[in-house]
Description:
By secondary structure, the protein is α/β, with parallel strands linked by helices. The protein has helices spanning 2-10, 70-94, 104-109, 111-119, 141-159, 177-183, 219-224, 227-245, 264-277, 288-305, and strands spanning 35-43, 99-102, 123-126, 165-166, 188-189, 198-202, 205-209, 216-218, 250-257, 283-285.
Amino acid sequence: MALVEDLAKAYHWNYRPQTPKRPEWFTEWPGGAKIAVAFNIMHEWESRPTPHHTVPSRPLPPDTHYRDDFFALTMREYGANFGFWRLLDVFDKYDVKASVLSSGLTATLFPDTVAEAVRRGHEVGSHHWDQTIHPTVYKTKEEEREPLLNSIKAIEKASGQRPLGYMSQGPRPGPFTLELCAELGFKWNGDYDTDVPYTMNVNGKKVVSLGYVRPSISDNEVWAYGFKDGLEQLKYEFRATYDEAQRHPMKFRYTMHNYVGGRPGMARIFEEFLQYLRGFRGVWFCRCIDMADFWLQQEALHEKKK
C-alpha cells in the first residue's frame, strides 16, 4: 500500500485523476462546436544555448572547450526576431488567436514580442524562466518558486497582463511544479496529456489540465516528414480527431516553435492548414485560456444544479 501511495504522489494522482472521465454535461463546446482547436507558439530562450535542447542532431565537437553553442543561439535569435513575427502575421490573416508560451527570459530580452502578441489579442502564458533549466533540476519548492515568479513578473512587465496559463519545459514538471502553479494563480496547465480537459484540485485551488500535443501534433513532428508529407500528416491527424469528435467533443492543439514553425516553408504549411480547416463545420478556434474558462464556468454551473 505504501508503494501505491508513493507512486500516486509521484505521478500527482493525489491532485489529478488517474483516469480522467468525460463529465455528463460535456456534450459540446461553445456554439455547439464538436471540436476545440487551439494553437500554441513556443517562445523559448536558453541562458546557456546548447544543442541538447535546440539541435540534438548537431552536437558540439567532443573536444570543445567553449560550451555556448552559437549554432543553437542563432536559431533562438531567428525565432524571436523573424519566425515569431511571421507566425503572428499568419494568425492575423485568418483572424485566429493563439496561446504563446514564453520563457521569462524571452519576455525580458525581447519584450516587444510578447507586448505585440497581447496587442493582437493572443494569450501569453508562462513557459517557466529558462529553457536550459527544467523544473526537475530544483531540489526544493522554494528554489523553483523564485524563477517561476520571475517569469510571471517578466511577462506581466512586458505585456501588461499576468500570465494565467503554464507549461513546463519538455513538458517535464518537477514534484513541486503543480502546487506552485496553483499557489501562483494559474488557471490552466499543459503538462499532462489528455483527450478531454479536467480540473485538478490542488489544495483547494482549481487548475484545468489541457494537455500539450496529445491528441494533436507539433511542428517538430511535421518538420520530420518534410513539407509536403508533413502537411498531409497534420491534416490526417486533425481529420482523425475531427471524426472522433462527432461521437464526443474533442480538442486539438497544434504547437509551433518560433524557430521551427516560424520558418517561411513551415509558416506556409500552417497557412495551408488553416485554409484546410475552413472546410469543416463545428470547429471552435480558441486560446487555451478560453478553453479553461469555459471548463471552469460549465463545471461550476453544473455543480450548482446538483
